[in-house]
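Internal tracking record. Fields below are filled automatically when a chain is submitted to the structure queue. Please do not edit lines marked as system-generated. If the sequence contains nonstandard residues, flag them in the REMARKS field before resubmitting.
Queue: standard
Priority: normal
Entity type: single polypeptide chain
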Amino acid sequence: MFITFEGIDGSGKTTQSELLASHFKQIRGKNNVILTREPGGTDFAEKVRRVLLKDNIDPISELLLLTSMRYEHVKKLILPALKEGKIVICDRFIDSTIAYQGYGLGVDLGLIGDLHKLVKIRRPDITFILDIDVQVGLSRARYKNKYEEMDINFYNKVRKGFQEIALKEPDRCNVITEVETKNDNQVYSEISDKVIISRT
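SYSTEM-GENERATED OUTPUT FOLLOWS
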């Protein structure tokens, strides 16, 4: 099973992905659960991540970098783990590229889709989108990077992007709404309930 967590910065997706991974490790064993992230996940991608989140790069160049990083990630880590029957949980994946580079920075959505079809990127089985008020999310963000220097309009576009992705793919995407009004345990309870339902 391949599970991804999505949302704007400060939505709590990293915390929730860690909680779900810990739960599955207790059930399946720690060697049967992979917790990874994007941008990143491989040695190559982690090195590029540091540049990507710091330097100002043309949006198309950024898209190409992200796609190549994701291809390496899928080929070298995600697919091998899934073939071994492991559960893979990823903090951000293709939906973040659609929301940030597409809706946020204005890169053509068709181009993003075509690039991922070209390299045959494996889609997640389940995606959790944590929807949070933009201003609250940014105030909660743990790590500061170039995206957090964007104006509020950028993040409103990104949030709208995630919402539209969920509308287009309701069978895959589960939206946790009004995250800003809930604590971590309440959010996790909604997530765990939906994982159990999806597996039955």
